[in-house]
Amino acid sequence: MDDYGSESDSDYTSYWRDWFISSRGNEYFCEIDEEYLTDRFNLTGLNTEVQYYQYALDLVTDVFDLDCDDEMRETIEKSARHLYGLVHARYIVTTRGLAKMLEKYKKADFGKCPRVMCNSHPLLPMGLSDIPNLKPVKLYCARCEDIYNPKSSRHASIDGAYFGTSFHNILFQVYPALIPPKSTERYVPRVYGFKVHAAAALVRWQNLMREDMRRRLRKMEVESGFKDGEDEDLDEAEDDDGEEDEELQQQIAEYRGANQHHGTSFTGGEPHVGSVA
């Protein structure tokens, strides 16, 4: 690596992958093994996806020796980056690729979730499409199960197809111990310490729906994933389904009545502030 540090920029092609990985904006990528790149089976079908495919592959595998002008070289360089991205999407779902991305995930190289209730949980890159040039890369949080845009414009311009739509799910299938517990904390809007009425009614309705779901899962003997002891209070309520249904209807009516009376609305986003309960 001492020789690499002494090389000029014009000689970077001798270490193309090292140069690519260390370039600003490419921090999401891991280095693909030489053996994987030289196995033509792993590159099946990519020759129709990449312009100047053979020249681009020679550049990525550090055997490029074509004497060409700057314009042609720039075109081949662009094709090499595209080829590396497409191969990268295949590589990161292999055993070796998952291990490399896991190390980056543990170090939070992809960033941390901006949601306050997730307590800075590490993110994973993902694509919304496996077809190139359709959607940019997004960041997935396994705690809140939502996706976010990268902070840096350099990262936001990366093609999502270079990570694919399956990588983040496969990672948690292979390493189930990494699946984080879901956060049950919810922000409760308040005015001078008092809960906002419409939002409070909505939270009560959501809690009733969650308890009803837990009760049904327990009857079907399905593992709910809730903490030990959280569903012990459901033992006494299993025979009171009729009363629960009546209470649920009452809560829904209360929530709707509060919205109509105070001019509040809820259309799938955050509820607007109503009166103080």
TrEMBL record:
<feature type="compositionally biased region" description="Acidic residues">
    <location>
        <begin position="229"/>
        <end position="248"/>
    </location>
</feature>
<dbReference type="InterPro" id="IPR035991">
    <property type="entry name" value="Casein_kinase_II_beta-like"/>
</dbReference>
<comment type="subunit">
    <text>Tetramer composed of two alpha chains, one beta chain and one beta' chain.</text>
</comment>
<comment type="function">
    <text>Regulatory subunit of casein kinase II/CK2. As part of the kinase complex regulates the basal catalytic activity of the alpha subunit a constitutively active serine/threonine-protein kinase that phosphorylates a large number of substrates containing acidic residues C-terminal to the phosphorylated serine or threonine.</text>
</comment>
<dbReference type="GO" id="GO:0006359">
    <property type="term" value="P:regulation of transcription by RNA polymerase III"/>
</dbReference>
<comment type="subunit">
    <text>Tetramer of two alpha and two beta subunits.</text>
</comment>
<dbReference type="Pfam" id="PF01214">
    <property type="entry name" value="CK_II_beta"/>
</dbReference>
<keyword id="KW-0418">Kinase</keyword>
<keyword id="KW-0808">Transferase</keyword>
<dbReference type="GO" id="GO:0005737">
    <property type="term" value="C:cytoplasm"/>
</dbReference>
<feature type="region of interest" description="Disordered">
    <location>
        <begin position="223"/>
        <end position="277"/>
    </location>
</feature>
<dbReference type="InterPro" id="IPR000704">
    <property type="entry name" value="Casein_kinase_II_reg-sub"/>
</dbReference>
<protein>
    <recommendedName>
        <fullName>Casein kinase II subunit beta</fullName>
    </recommendedName>
</protein>
<keyword id="KW-0597">Phosphoprotein</keyword>
<dbReference type="GO" id="GO:0016301">
    <property type="term" value="F:kinase activity"/>
</dbReference>
<dbReference type="InterPro" id="IPR016149">
    <property type="entry name" value="Casein_kin_II_reg-sub_N"/>
</dbReference>
<comment type="similarity">
    <text>Belongs to the casein kinase 2 subunit beta family.</text>
</comment>
<dbReference type="GO" id="GO:0005956">
    <property type="term" value="C:protein kinase CK2 complex"/>
</dbReference>
<dbReference type="GO" id="GO:0019887">
    <property type="term" value="F:protein kinase regulator activity"/>
</dbReference>
<dbReference type="GO" id="GO:0034456">
    <property type="term" value="C:UTP-C complex"/>
</dbReference>
